[in-house]
Amino acid sequence: MSKRRYPLLAVDGGGTKTIAVVTNEKGEILGTGRAGATNYQVVGEKQSKCALQAAIQAAVDEVLAGLAVCGTTDETVEKAAEDVHVKNVRDEDVEFDRAVFALAGIDTKRDEAIVSNIVEAALTGLKVEVDKVIVENDCLSALLGATGKSPGVLLISGTGSIVFAHDGKGNFIRAGGWGHRVGDEGSGYWIGKEAIRSVLKMYDGREKTKSILARMILEHFGFGHIEDLYNWVYGENYSVDDVSALSMVVEKAAELGDEAGCAILDRAVSELEQLLYAVLGGNDAFHSGSFSLVLQGGVLQHNHYIRQKILNSLKRTHPNLQLITTHPTPIHNIIQRGLG
């Protein structure tokens, strides 16, 4: 049985999807695999392991397919790729110098132990050998990959929200990230939920603001009445992702001057600022010297209003911050974490 060795396996696993990549020593991606959620708090330990295995195997299969078709003619490339794609990782031992598993759901020491066991079981089941395995919170991994050992802050506002910071001396601080049931303030899900609450209040007459938000939300879902929205919220088709998608509807309403939409975005800014200042306020490293700021997540990447408000606020209070913009996707920061 032959063996193939690669420098790095990097895995970014969250509550909705998982991406695994195999890279060379320069961090160039050789193969990519995708699967469903790996946050064990969302899908359970068994499904988390299965998703990890599916993503890793798909990434390795893509690398093997690329090796198999190298040098072939155009007519044989597609067939060769298909033949190799069905090859199981067990047919050829794969080794890595290092693997970084940046996974959501690692919030406590107990989580860390559970997820480490899941990762070990996934690798053992695939017969994948790794010299050094790093298992850590996905946000922490992305922060370290983007900023290295220098002081830095990572603010994420996507479906959820969280802040991670480190002072360059090995001390890490976190705020938020408590999930959609009790936290994630300022996130896409929070914005969507606030929009629904606002619409229901206006329907009751508890909120007198003139707003086009209700009409836009109903049109977004294809509903004919507010009661349809209510039934959906408490029905089996309700999902966190669908509520989070309403943040784009709120943004469009705000761009049209809608008072309710603007008020929701302003509250989102306030919540995200609270997260930031919770980690910045108690550490001299962020006041006395320069530090890097990384913004990630759909809300911060695409909602110009929220992004600019936060940056303007931080520049007034922390003029030494340096915004890092060279991070197209979290997996690239995770790769840097693995190579660093």
CATH C-level class of the largest domain is Alpha Beta
Distance between the termini: 32 Å
Order of strands, widest sheet: 3-2-1-4-5
Q: Any idea what the shape is?
A: globular
Taking Cα atoms only, what radius of gyration do you get, to the nearest Å?
A: 22 Å
Q: What's the CATH topology label of the largest domain?
A: Nucleotidyltransferase, domain 5
Question: How would a crystallographer describe the biggest sheet?
Answer: 5 strands, mixed
Give a quick summary of the entry.
With 340 residues, the protein is α/β, with parallel strands linked by helices.
Descriptive report:
This protein is α/β, with parallel strands linked by helices and about 350 residues long. It folds into two domains: about 5-145, ATPase, nucleotide binding domain (Nucleotidyltransferase, domain 5, 2-Layer Sandwich); about 150-325, Nucleotidyltransferase, domain 5 (2-Layer Sandwich), CATH 3.30.420.40. The chain has helices at about 40-45, 45-70, 75-85, 110-125, 140-145, 190-205, 215-220, 225-235, 240-255, 260-280, 285-290, 300, 305-315, 330-340; strands at about 5-15, 20-25, 30-35, 95-105, 130-135, 150-155, 160-165, 170-175, 290-295, 320-325. It has a five-stranded mixed beta sheet with strand order 3-2-1-4-5, with helices on both faces. A five-stranded mixed beta sheet has the order 8-7-6-9-10, with helices on both faces. Helix 10 runs parallel beside helix 13 (about 305-315). The chain is globular, with a radius of gyration of 22 Å.
